[in-house]
Amino acid sequence: MATPTALDLMLAHPFTSAEARRLGLDYADLVKQEVTRVSRGIYVPRVGVPTLADRARATLAVTQGAWASHRTSTALNGLWLPDPSSDHSLLHLSKPSHLPRVRREGVVGHRVTAHPGEVIELEPGIMASSPARSWLDLGQELGPVSLVALGDQLIRKPRPQFEGRSESYATIAQLTEMIRLHPKMKGVAKCRAALADMRVGADSIPETLLRLCLLAYGFPEPELQIVLRPSDAFSPSADLGYLALKIAIQYDGAHHLADQQRLRDARRDAAFREAGWTVIIVTAADREDDFGRVRHKLRSALRSRAA
């Protein structure tokens, strides 16, 4: 296998003119190649789509004192964004409030006050707002439901065997303190209100949306992650429901369509039903009509249990 040339390395991802010079390439070399200048001193290959991380790394390399923030850092942290906010054609970069904001093609610049721990190194060459600070950054942009959904993702307890981490991105106490430290920040009032509606236990964005929908339609607030047999380490659990009334609600997302998962789900649901529970299954299709079918079944179940 041939050893990659300096030009091969440059054409593999976004790069800066300084990086090209370090590898012995000058401007004349670059203009002859299949590259596109996307901003001052930053080039991308014309073939392929550069990743958000590569674009951020190249831009930060020529933007001293800046870090990725807002929707850019939210995505780089692997967090959810609603569809209207998931367009990353523009990078969001912040600088401390005593420095001038970033003014560059393809960049939305912000000037902010950041306290220790609110800016982290995600990987070499990429400084970014922490997951919690990213949520606060988006307080001025996201609606109330989206802020709660993103916040639930921050405070949920991860499953180490699947996620490679054992700690939540943030706790309610940490978010409360961060809000206290930024009393005049745009959107902080919306974040404060969202914090009151956030709950530990939602394992997915759809579960949060379902919970908020039920509350909006006047249903009692459901409990989250209900374990059928608390003394049994291998007990099945319900995503949400009502323990006292023995109503379990399971949100079965796309991965539940796999054969092995469907068998596990069937055993899970059978265990609840054998114990006298009513089980309501929710799918992605139910979101299309604001969970209308689910609300109808739940209302019937609540009446039946109350009787």
TrEMBL record:
Keywords for this protein: Endonuclease, Hydrolase, Nuclease
GO molecular function: endonuclease activity
SUPFAM superfamilies according to UniProt: Restriction endonuclease-like
InterPro entries linked: Restrct_endonuc-II-like
Origin superkingdom: Bacteria
Protein name stated in the entry: Endonuclease domain-containing protein
Taxonomic path: Bacteria, Bacillati, Actinomycetota, Actinomycetes, Micrococcales
